[in-house]
Write a structure and sequence with these properties.
alpha/beta; TIM Barrel; 2 domains; six-stranded parallel beta sheet; 10 helices; 12% strand; globular
Length: 302
């Protein structure tokens, strides 16, 4: 009796192991097939104008990233050293967003106004020179001695001093909304960033009152701070001048380990009539970073 039971248990264990091995083999084969398909993918629909935020792929050489973007079918690049602008443009990429000041020291504090204004004007001049259409700006980090209303007024005062220069040169200033919560990625997030609420950013944009001053809608940041991405895109469409992507949580790939339904989001962006850029700004964790970019491009090529 005991011998029979042992034999049955042994047979069941062996069968289970066999099924497990077969399942594992099937899983590996599926992953390999998916990888092979992804490695062949090139953007074909082109309804979403895709770009890449270059800093997220550091330390990959910029020339290598430019080459990969062209091969995959992206049409823009941003967040790279300006010395690489000529190489990117020669390869056929548009500079989708020109930098200015950073997110830490912003116009919410008047002590930064001189620096912020100079850097934004410089960004506008560079954008005009190279044929780019957008320049980024930020709110800045909170100062405990400056309340939210005053900070907003300070921002508006500074931006009104540069928006005329942007209008004259056909450049759109894009104010980026950032989250102040997630510190899991290498940049350690943006705790204390005062522009972490869409209402704050939209209020300032309305007060500036120019068609050349828009919102940089970062889908990852909005998901963390507000959620309800599609409804926010619908309600804010007239204010949006640029988009960024990344998977949440973790700011990694746009794969099935994160919660944002990117194909649905991209389709909604198209419904609004948006014709600007959607820039990939995820930090790749896959060993093959180019495969990660290719996969993101495929997800967004709706």
């Amino acid at each position: 009796m005991s011998t029979t039971n042992i034999s049955r248990r042994s047979l069941m264990k062996a069968a289970t192991v066999g099924v497990g091995l077969a399942s594992a083999s099937s899983s590996v084969q599926a992953q390999l097939a998916r990888s092979e398909a992804t490695n062949r993918f090139k953007i074909k629909n082109k309804r979403i104008r895709q770009s890449i935020m270059g800093w997220t792929f550091n330390p990959m050489p910029t020339e290598e990233l430019i080459s990969a973007c062209v091969e995959i079918g992206l049409t823009g690049i941003e967040g790279i050293n300006r010395k690489f602008y000529p190489a990117a443009q020669k390869a056929g990429l548009e500079i989708s967003l020109v930098g200015s000041h950073g997110f830490s020291d912003g116009p919410n504090n008047t002590k930064n106004h001189k620096m912020v204004i100079e850097k934004i004007i410089n960004g506008i001049d560079v954008a005009k020179e190279i044929g780019a259409k957008r320049v980024i700006t930020f709110v800045g980090m909170e100062d405990p001695n400056i309340d939210s209303d005053q900070a907003n007024a300070n921002c508006v005062k500074a931006w009104k001093q540069v928006v005329g220069h942007a209008e004259k040169n056909g450049i759109t200033l894009c104010l980026e909304h950032l989250n102040s919560v997630d510190d899991s990625h290498p940049m350690k997030g943006h705790p204390g960033y005062q522009g972490d609420k869409l209402d704050f950013c939209i209020e300032a944009i309305r007060k500036v009152g120019s068609p050349n001053f828009k919102l940089l809608f970062d889908i990852y940041h909005v998901q963390i701070m507000h959620g309800d991405i599609i409804r926010n895109i619908r309600s804010l469409k007239e204010y949006i001048g640029h988009y960024h992507t990344a998977g949440n949580p973790g700011r990694a790939e746009l794969d099935d380990t994160q919660e944002i339904n990117y194909p649905a989001v991209m389709k909604e962006i198209l419904k609004t009539g948006f014709e600007g850029f959607v820039a990939q700004e995820f930090i790749p964790r896959w060993n093959d970073k180019i495969a990660a970019l290719r996969h993101a491009a495929e997800i967004c090529d709706v």
